[in-house]
C-alpha cells in the first residue's frame, strides 16, 4: 500500500524527513530502501525518490556503496571543511518552510556544512527528543525556526540548551535571530490592493497560530488602519497553507456572500487556489476581485492569472543564518545579533485596476 504524503509540494523533503526519523528511532538498522522501492512506497517517480536519498547522503547520515545500495554511515560524520548543523522546523508541509530548508541546504553545501533537518510538529516533547539526539551525535549548532518555539514552556526550554542557537523568526532576545519582515511585506501588498480599488479587503490566513498574532495579519491591519478602516472579520478566513486551503477559503467567502473587492493570501500557493475558486464561480480576476499573495514560491508560467505577491529572498535569509553560525562558533561570547531582511512587492495582473 502506498504511503500518503501530506502535500504534493516538495515531496522529496518529506520523504527525506520520514527516512531520517526512521534512522533516528532505529527503524532502519543498516541498508536503506532503494530509490525504486521508495518511489513505489510513496507513489513518486524515481528521480524524486533519489533526490530524497541525496539529502541524507549530503547530511552524512547514509553512504552509497556502488553496486550494493545505500547504507547507514554510523555515526554521522562531521564535515572536514565545515560544521555539523541541526535545522529544526515546525513542519515541512508549509511551502515557506520548505523553501527555507532548500536554501539552507544549498548554501550549507557550498560552505561544506552538513545540515540535518527535522520537524517538531509544534510539540515540545519532540523538540526535547531532537535536542537530546543532537547532543549525543555531536551537532555543533542549531537553526531554530520560530514556529517551533511559541509557548512559554518551549521558550524557557530553549534558554537551557547548551548549544549555539541561531533563530529564524524566533524574536527571542537572548539568541541571534534572522527574520524576514513579513509584516512590512503584508502592508505593502494590502496598501497596493487598496490603491487599486479600495476596501473591503479580505485576508486568508494559513497559519496555525492565532490570526491576530501573526506578522501578515498585523501588516494587513496596519494598511487598513492607515485609512481609518478597522479589519472586518466577515472577510477573514483561516485554512491550511495549501492550494486546496486557499480554494476552500474563497468558496466559503462566496457561499456566505462575504466576497470583498480584493483578497490578500498568507502565501502564493493559497492565492493560486483562491484565484481558481473565483474563476470556477465566474468571478473574474482582476476585473471583479483583485488578489495578492505573500511569497514567490511558484513560477509565473504555472499561474492561470499572473499573481501579485510579496517576494522574500530565502537565499539571503540562508546566507545570513549561516554567517551568524560561523560568527557564534568562532566568537561564543559575542552579543546577539538581530538581522532583518526586507521584502519587495512584485506587481502582476491579478491586482491591476480595471476601468
Description of the structure:
The chain is built from eleven helices and 14 strands. By secondary structure, the protein is α/β, with parallel strands linked by helices. The protein has two domains: 11-180, 3-Layer(aba) Sandwich (Rossmann fold), CATH 3.40.50.2300; 182-311 and 345-351, Response regulator (Rossmann fold), CATH 3.40.50.2300. Helix 10 (268-280) links the parallel strand 10 (262-265) and strand 11. Helix 1 packs across helix 3. The longest helix is centred in the C-terminal third of the chain and has 17 residues, at 314-330. The radius of gyration is 22 Å and the shape is globular. It starts with 10 loop residues before the first helix and ends in a 9-residue tail after the last strand. 45% of the residues are buried.
In terms of topology, how is this protein built?
Layout: H1 11-24, H2 35-42, H3 46-59, E1 62-65, E2 69-72, E3 84-89, H4 95-110, E4 114-119, H5 124-137, E5 141-145, H6 152-158, E6 165-168, E7 176-180, H7 182-195, E8 201-205, H8 215-225, E9 236-238, H9 243-255, E10 262-265, H10 268-280, E11 290-293, E12 308-311, H11 314-330, E13 338-341, E14 344-346
Parallel strand pairs: 3-4, 3-5, 5-6, 6-7, 7-13, 8-9, 8-10, 10-11, 11-12
Antiparallel strand pairs: 1-2, 12-14
Helix pairs in contact: 1-3, 2-3, 4-11, 7-8, 9-10
Amino acid at each position: 500500500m502506498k504511503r500518503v504524503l501530506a502535500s504534493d509540494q516538495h515531496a522529496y523533503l518529506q520523504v527525506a524527513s520520514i527516512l531520517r526519523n526512521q534512522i533516528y528511532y532505529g527503524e532502519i538498522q543498516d541498508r536503506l530502501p532503494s530509490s525504486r522501492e521508495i518511489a513505489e512506497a510513496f507513489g513518486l517517480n524515481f528521480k524524486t525518490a533519489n533526490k530524497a536519498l541525496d539529502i541524507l547522503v549530503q547530511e552524512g547520515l547514509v553512504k552509497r556503496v556502488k553496486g550494493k545500495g545505500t547504507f547507514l554511515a554510523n555515526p554521522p560524520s562531521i564535515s572536514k571543511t565545515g560544521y555539523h548543523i541541526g535545522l529544526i522546523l515546525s513542519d515541512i508541509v508549509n511551502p515557506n518552510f520548505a523553501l527555507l530548508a532548500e536554501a539552507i541546504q544549498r548554501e550549507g553545501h557550498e560552505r561544506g556544512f552538513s545540515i540535518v533537518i527535522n520537524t517538531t510538529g509544534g510539540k515540545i516533547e519532540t523538540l526535547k527528543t531532537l535536542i537530546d539526539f543532537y547532543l549525543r551525535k555531536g551537532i555543533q549548532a542549531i537553526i531554530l525556526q520560530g514556529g517551533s518555539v511559541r509557548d512559554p514552556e518551549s521558550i524557557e526550554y530553549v534558554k537551557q540548551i547548551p548549544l549555539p542557537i541561531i533563530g529564524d523568526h524566533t524574536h527571542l532576545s537572548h539568541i541571534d535571530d534572522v527574520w524576514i519582515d513579513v509584516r512590512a511585506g503584508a502592508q505593502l501588498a494590502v496598501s497596493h490592493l487598496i490603491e487599486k480599488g479600495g476596501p473591503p479587503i479580505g485576508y486568508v490566513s494559513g497559519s496555525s497560530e492565532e490570526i491576530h498574532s501573526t506578522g501578515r495579519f498585523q501588516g494587513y491591519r496596519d494598511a487598513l488602519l492607515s485609512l481609518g478602516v478597522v479589519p472586518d472579520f466577515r472577510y477573514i478566513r483561516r485554512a491550511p497553507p495549501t492550494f486546496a486551503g486557499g480554494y476552500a477559503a474563497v468558496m466559503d467567502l462566496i457561499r456566505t456572500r462575504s466576497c470583498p473587492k480584493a483578497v490578500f493570501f498568507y502565501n502564493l500557493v493559497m492565492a493560486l487556489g483562491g484565484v481558481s475558486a473565483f474563476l470556477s464561480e465566474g468571478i473574474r480576476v482582476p476585473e471583479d476581485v483583485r488578489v495578492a499573495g505573500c511569497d514567490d514560491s511558484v513560477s509565473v508560467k504555472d499561474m492561470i492569472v499572473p499573481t501579485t505577491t510579496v517576494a522574500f529572498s530565502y537565499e539571503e535569509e540562508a546566507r545570513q543564518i549561516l554567517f551568524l553560525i560561523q560568527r557564534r562558533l568562532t566568537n561564543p561570547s559575542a552579543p546577539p545579533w538581530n538581522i532583518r531582511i526586507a521584502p519587495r512587492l512584485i506587481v502582476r495582473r491579478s491586482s491591476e485596476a480595471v476601468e
